[in-house]
From TrEMBL:
Keyword Methyltransferase annotated: no
Acyl-CoA dehydrogenase/oxidase C-terminal domain mapped to chain residues: 229-378
Family to which the UniProt record says this protein belongs: Belongs to the acyl-CoA dehydrogenase family.
Annotated Pfam families: Acyl-CoA_dh_1 (PF00441), Acyl-CoA_dh_M (PF02770), Acyl-CoA_dh_N (PF02771)
Signal peptide stretch: none
Cofactor: FAD
The Acyl-CoA oxidase/dehydrogenase middle domain, residue ranges: 124-217
Coiled coil: none
Domain Acyl-CoA dehydrogenase/oxidase N-terminal intervals: 8-118
Taxonomic classification: Bacteria, Pseudomonadati, Pseudomonadota, Alphaproteobacteria, Sphingomonadales
This protein's name: Alkylation response protein AidB-like acyl-CoA dehydrogenase
Amino acid sequence: MSQAFALTEDQLAIQDMTRRFTADEITPRAARWDEEHLFPREVIRATGELGLGGIYVSEAGGGVGLGRLEAALVFEAMSYGCPTTAAFLSIHNMAAWMLDSYGPDALKAQHLPGLLAMDKLGSYCLTEPGSGSDAAALATTARRDGDDYVINGTKQFISGGGVNDIYLIMVRTGEDGPRGISCVLVEKDTPGLSFGAPERKLGWNASPTAQVILENVRVPVTNRLGAEGEGFRIAMAGLDGGRLNIGACSLGGAQRCLDEAIAYVKERRQFGRAVAEFQNTQFVLADMATELEAARALLYLAAAKVTAGAPDKTRFSAMAKRFATDTGSAVVDRALQLFGGYGYLRDYPIERFWRDLRVHRILEGTNEVMRLIVGRDLLQ
């Protein structure tokens, strides 16, 4: 795989470590996880030993304190074996970072060590059955009762729902709109917290997804991250990095399919010669590689901006997410076409990547919403 940026020795070492872990522990097993709908808890836990449970959690918080480019390298390398597993780890890292950045010290001391070691797994809970792209319209309520909040509502499409241990939940504590939203941590065994049936999905079969249902769930006010009314800002800050991560997952999956397609067309023969010898094949491969490198360059640039806290970081993370996930899907689709009928079979990995990468254009903000973010920022 070529590089869009010149990486430092440390960055190359992180990338190499993740590639080796992926090749040994993920790539040989990913097809079975998908087919049998298996959540690889032990492999996920093993990433904690590599420091991947808190990639950009601060060193003061016990994490490794890396930047968003290093995180992108990790998720890109891991997605080469299984985008689903990499995306699950991304969401966990987003939750750990939010707790480290906005949680009170006592709450961090209680939960961060377990999250960093991957002994505990974290979920991010924003979407609801009635509010997807319009996230600020969420209806889950947290009513103040003395030193507690009493929470009622339902969260939809939650990765790790029913499996994970920690849920960072966006709740309404005040007025309508974003200013009335707060962020509260709820533990899995809290009375009144339950989960819907596992969702039956097109892809991401190795990652559990379910509703998170809250019925008179009582948690201490000290479980709140940030001040009351800051939850929407916290949620959006988490999404800047989450969008980069999911874009990186698309890059890694698409790169795998490009490499698989190159190997296949060299071997596959039609009309007396290798499919790779046809000019049309070469043009398709050239476009796939060019678009993938362009998406990678934009994503790495956006990652540097988010790490630096640049004023235009949100616009660039939205641009990069939109472009990388659209490009990733398009590259995998063309790889499947190059495989012909064999690409449609589970004997080859292409159809799994085609299914897994499709949802990346929806989650962490749909690509239509990414266009809104970019357009509004340009017109300010």
